[in-house]
Amino acid sequence: MSGKPKLYYFDGRGKMESIRWLLSAAGVEFEEEFLTTREQYEKLLQDGSLLFQQVPMVEMDGMKMVQTRAILSYIAAKHNLYGKDLKERVLIDMYVEGTDDLMAFIIKFPFLSAEDKEKELANIIEKATGRYFPVYEKVLKGHGQNFLVGNRLSWADVHLLEAILMVEEKKSDVLSAFPRLQAFKADISSIPAIKKFLEPGSQRKPVPDDKYVETVRKVLRMY
């Protein structure tokens, strides 16, 4: 064992991508085992590694952790990215869960039919610009700080930057009406650990393609 966290998932974004983001923001190196066959997945099931028969799964600190939110909470708390007290933590939780709601639309997008993708694209942009981004614009404007909570980097900031970049892949000028979010994006992207993760050759995954979708469908038998 190298001592590095080991991530078990597909070679693509999905629910694991936020875990990659948070580990990278914390400056933690990690290894990955990509699921490409049904046999790999069934072995994890037979070993009892997947408590609820689902991935992501992360081997870390002597534990085999499942459930994305639990994994992220652990990483955030361990690496001082979860606020200084309960009041900051509940704000971080609120912002993370709001961002999660937006990201859920994007994560399912590659699995839709061509016809449904057209409708869902408009829905994603409408939700981002009408419901979610205005909240963060107001928060940042209200306290005049560079970070969402406590004037220091937290899980909420990392999660929001990930979501912003995902939406920008769908519509490049989506932040045109949100000057505070534009500044936020620039500030958070320039943090050394995050900047490194955004550079070519990192463990950040590209936009999901047909090969990724087919692999997930095959391994999980989503037919």
Describe the structure.
This protein is of the alpha+beta class and 223 residues long. It folds into two domains: 97 residues, Glutaredoxin (3-Layer(aba) Sandwich), CATH 3.40.30.10; 105 residues, Glutathione S-transferase Yfyf (Class Pi), Chain A, domain 2 (Up-down Bundle), CATH 1.20.1050. Helix content is 57%, strand content 7%. It is built from nine helices and four strands; from the N terminus they run E-H-E-H-E-E-H-H-H-H-H-H-H. The chain has a four-stranded mixed beta sheet with strand order 2-1-3-4, with helices on one face. Strand 3 and strand 4 form a beta hairpin. Helix 1 runs parallel beside helix 3, helix 4 packs parallel to helix 6 and helix 6 crosses helix 7. The protein is globular, with a radius of gyration of 18 Å.
**Major beta sheet, strand line-up:** 2-1-3-4
CATH class of the largest domain: Mainly Alpha
Number of helices: 9
Reported for the largest beta sheet, the result is: 4 strands, mixed
The percent range for strand residues is 5-15%
CATH architecture of the largest domain: Up-down Bundle
